[in-house]
Amino acid sequence: MAQPKYTIYKYVRLRDGSWRYCRAALYANHTVKPDVVNLGGKEEKHPEGNYYLACAGQWIPAGPDALKAQRQRHALLSGNSQEYERYSGRFVPKAAVVNPGDAICLMLACTCTEHVLQIWQLSIETV
């Protein structure tokens, strides 16, 4: 199962009075610029509106604070449901549920790969 992707958007009012979801602008270190969105390839400041996390066609509310939205995104990506509930005050959305079996399979695959690499390295050193 692939890991879900969560993109941070902000629901903002445009100059013509309509509302639209716009991608949140990011700094070079991938942190969210507060109240700044990408609109038509340019960055614009919009203090109004709330942040949302987009995942699999769902809009997950993240509130008006950019830092809080980013923390919720990190909590969802890490699979830490307790941390997500602490930041958002809500339970983890359906699309974000991580199966514990997937993590165990990945851990076993990594362990097996490490052992194979160790054996391969020993055989090279002995030649």
Describe the structure.
The chain has a 6-stranded antiparallel β-sheet with strand order 4-3-2-1-5-6. The model is unreliable at 102-113 and 119-127 (pLDDT under 50). The protein has helices at 66-78, 81-88, 100-126; strands at residues 7-13, 19-26, 32-39, 42-45, 50-55, 58-63. By secondary structure, it is α+β, with helices and mostly antiparallel strands. It has 2 domains: 7-96, no CATH class; 97-127. 38% of the residues lie in helices and 31% in strands. The radius of gyration is 20 Å and the shape is globular.
Helix vs. strand class: alpha+beta
Please mark out the parts with pLDDT under 50 across 5 or more consecutive residues, or reply none. Answer: 102-113, 119-127
Instruction: Going across the biggest sheet, name each strand in turn.
Output: 4-3-2-1-5-6
Radius of gyration using CA atoms only = 20 Å
Helix content: 25-40%
| Whole-number total of structural domains | 2
> How does the overall form come out from the CA principal axes?
globular
- Beta fraction of the residues? 25-35%
H/E series: EEEEEEHHH
Instruction: Tell me the total number of β-strands.
Output: 6
Spatial separation of the terminal alpha carbons:
40 Å
What's the short version?
With 127 residues, this protein is α+β, with helices and mostly antiparallel strands. It has helices spanning 66-78, 81-88, 100-126; strands at residues 7-13, 19-26, 32-39, 42-45, 50-55, 58-63.
Question: Which SSEs are present, and which pair or pack?
Answer:
Elements: E1 7-13, E2 19-26, E3 32-39, E4 42-45, E5 50-55, E6 58-63, H1 66-78, H2 81-88, H3 100-126
Antiparallel strand pairs: 1-2, 1-5, 2-3, 3-4, 5-6
